[in-house]
Amino acid sequence: MINQQLLQPESIAIIGGSNDITKPGGKVLKNLLDHHFKGKLYVVNPKETIIQGLECYHDARDLPSIDLGILAIPARLCPESVKVLAETKNTKAFIIFSAGFHEESQEGARLEQEIVETVNKTGGCLIGPNCIGVMTPYHTSVFTTPIPELVPDGVDFISGSGATAVFIMEYAITNGLKFSSVFSVGNSAQIGVEEVLEYLDMHFDPLQSSKIKLLYIESIEKPDKLLKHASSLIRKGCRIAAIKAGTSAAGSRAATSHTGALASSDTAVDALLRKAGIVRCHSRQELATVGGIFTHPPLPGNRMAIITHAGGPAVMLTDALSNNGIEIPPLESPELLSKLYPGSSVANPIDFLATGTATQLAEIIDYCENRFEQIDAMAVIFGSPGLFEVYDVYKVLDEKMRSCRKPIFPILTSIINVKKEIEYFISLG
Amino acid sequence: MINQQLLQPESIAIIGGSNDITKPGGKVLKNLLDHHFKGKLYVVNPKETIIQGLECYHDARDLPSIDLGILAIPARLCPESVKVLAETKNTKAFIIFSAGFHEESQEGARLEQEIVETVNKTGGCLIGPNCIGVMTPYHTSVFTTPIPELVPDGVDFISGSGATAVFIMEYAITNGLKFSSVFSVGNSAQIGVEEVLEYLDMHFDPLQSSKIKLLYIESIEKPDKLLKHASSLIRKGCRIAAIKAGTSAAGSRAATSHTGALASSDTAVDALLRKAGIVRCHSRQELATVGGIFTHPPLPGNRMAIITHAGGPAVMLTDALSNNGIEIPPLESPELLSKLYPGSSVANPIDFLATGTATQLAEIIDYCENRFEQIDAMAVIFGSPGLFEVYDVYKVLDEKMRSCRKPIFPILTSIINVKKEIEYFISLG
Asked: Is residue B216 a part of any domain in this protein?
């Protein structure tokens, strides 16, 4: 079971730490140093004396007591290291990056089993093997980049595939998402996606815990456990989205070869996720986008105002929303119209034209917030044809998103012309 | 009808040119200068003497003969300027940026009608009003950025909405797409999407013309014309993708207010596009992606090899493809497997692991190209967990895409870790 030593270790030892930051054992140390891990950091490597400025131990037996052991050494050397740490250093948490276990061979499966037995016997927890690691606001024990912003009210992300976790985070970070925790469970030798979810459920704190969970799953080994804890978390106010990959016949063959996942029919998966209340996604972009939408308060109703400075995207969005159960009710206000430039429209979409200003946007949002009772939420589309900067518009948008009762969904269409302004907008939070 | 003066003008006059590059009349001049327009460039502005380094004319009457007139002046002044150019300067092509015509008022509709009559009488062509302009390899007569790379074998792009055209191009450029022409038809006073398509069809040259057309349409005014020329172009070997927005009830209200588009039912649009052989898209990302796929040779069959260095994305892609009619046939080759690192798989997906090298990728692609007869095409997934640079892999990928008979679709998953390498890959073409 996941424990405090994994989530908030006071000491970490990297077995196989290295000066070469293109190697997992070097990169994880660099990540921990770069992100100012506050606890004690130890490195074990028989061939070095100083590693990235830290004194290097030649043998794990020389270490003091250690909370979390990270292994970046060949598979065949792992069981002995785990034994030393678990039995003589009171180590209760392990992350094993190394591959070459049950995903590769019978011999690997035996090594993996041996490690699990040692960890179980000493009451510890094991993430991996064959994973990229774990991140929480307390430590960044992964050998990959990018490192997202880690805050208690970010998103909890559990992934059955390490590289996929990286690609999803890259997309999510670009879209402004922050994380509360990231678990790459790898071979799930002791702890799989289900067990992480169980922990998050059983230790859920309505005031402190993140209310958003994102999952990438290739194999649902314990559907009952998944259903139980996902439903429970959702009853406690959480929102969960998941990709379950490997559900087509060919995809399930691919998943089996990737992580040894068992086949499961697409219909069964759909039914299970639906019953649990999980939003099913089919691509990394979709998962990251749904995660972003979850950061907004839930819609109090299904009536949306679309506010735009460009007609076309508003027409497409109106199609997409109204084809999926969201109403775009007609609006009328000669008073509001008189405050906009000639040619504007307030019929919903509210189009305040390419020349529209930040002041006009603020005015429109105030009308939607306070006057239009038939509106539950707003979507604001604002890009730029590249004539001038639009920082002021994005500043207004950020302020209104904080102050309005009704949820506001920003849609920032210009990924080149407004690149800098979007980065600024994201930096505001 | 579109003419040579619009596509390859030898002289351009900007009526309402300006030193202020945050204004359309200033920005279009800057775009033409920055992109080295080879013909003669004239600027008319009654209040200036030098504009962006060019001598300024105070009155259009003082100009020499002009091929293309670009108007960036208030709507009410446009009819007179068009008259002067068309009747005394032999101007046969016009682009009018200005808004305030039939989309705004009855008076505007009258002005627009007057302009069309003048242009028709003198046998010229008119793009707009209320548009962002036109680009070809010969000139960049738009007041927006970004300017894509313009080459004869790029994509022809026709848009019924200027801002939407910008947002679609931003996405397309980021994904490496090049353009052969861009037409923003605005109010379509004389020339709409259908007329541009007609021109491209009637002047189609199997050796010279672009074979890819992308359309953003809010209103199909002449379904017969669209059907006729789209089908004809497709018979000539072209591939066409289109967004038709404003097909939901609410969306059609939005489109009417945006460009005065008439309502059309979604089913009717679907049937029309299907009959013509046009691939229908529903978002700007989808249109840009389909445009990118069109740059590959057509699939000779439906059997795909998925080559990857990361299991998860390959599982998702296998699901997506095999759920949509593409086969991912099982493969076997102990010989190929022996050239990869332990733990790799060649069962399809071919997974050569996170540690896989450029040499191994080349080897795998050669097997798919020459040995695996049950394979028609390849998808290559390659991102990075951020440990080291992967320029060499992307170089191999580019070389193989050029030399292989079987189409190769690159899927570059790491938008942060491999940002620079992706830019390099795109720069290779």
From this structure: yes
